[in-house]
């Protein structure tokens, strides 16, 4: 497998990245029309952590972390390293030494559709990671791949310079051209949710706020008393 290392790709504006950093993954995903989520395979190795940054992407051979070494040089302040493999892999391709090198360069975290190891050390040093697996299985450095090319994770395309957000709920990608729009839409959604939260605290039901009683009626769902329900031959 040959490959390419692309230098100096365009990146989302840092102000838009920081604006998006104020919102959770679920909020941004919903605000963008329920798009961009990288699936449920990627889980955090830590808890109560949220990051946002610009993607540096890696396409590696499974069980081979050579291209992660190559990608470290391309990483800088505010980036998030995003790694996938040419076919499914759960090998532990990333650990504490990689995290040390990336942290020194100002990288905010890792998203990898493969395995990681040294998870206790990663938590202790405060380097956030989202991975598809945790495995002590070692890797080799033998096969070429690519850095800063579009990659696909969970059916979503991640390009270098796109915005990546990650928290306890998962990982979402925002195309760099849509970063400002996504931040504005997320702010509007948060305002809407705040109003709904206040209404629920006052006792309003979702059935009424979202006009779901009409939807139930349209679907033929009826209300019956317990006596009627059991008299008509139904069983609890």
UniProtKB/TrEMBL annotation:
Where is the chain membrane-spanning? Answer: none
* Enzyme Commission code: 4.1.1.112, 4.1.3.17
Q: According to its UniProt record, which reaction does this protein catalyse? A: 4-hydroxy-4-methyl-2-oxoglutarate = 2 pyruvate; oxaloacetate + H(+) = pyruvate + CO2
* Signal peptide range: none
Give the Gene3D superfamilies listed for this entry. Ribonuclease E inhibitor RraA/RraA-like
Residue ranges annotated as coiled coil are none
A Pfam family this chain is assigned to: RraA-like
Task: Check the record and name the SUPFAM superfamilies matching this protein.
Answer: RraA-like
Q: Which cofactors are named for this entry?
A: a divalent metal cation
Per the record, the domain of life is: Bacteria
Q: Which InterPro entries match?
A: RraA/RraA-like (IPR005493), RraA/RraA-like_sf (IPR036704)
Q: What does this protein do?
A: Catalyzes the aldol cleavage of 4-hydroxy-4-methyl-2-oxoglutarate (HMG) into 2 molecules of pyruvate. Also contains a secondary oxaloacetate (OAA) decarboxylase activity due to the common pyruvate enolate transition state formed following C-C bond cleavage in the retro-aldol and decarboxylation reactions.
Q: How does it assemble?
A: Homotrimer.
Q: Which family does it belong to?
A: Belongs to the class II aldolase/RraA-like family.
Q: What is this protein called?
A: Putative 4-hydroxy-4-methyl-2-oxoglutarate aldolase
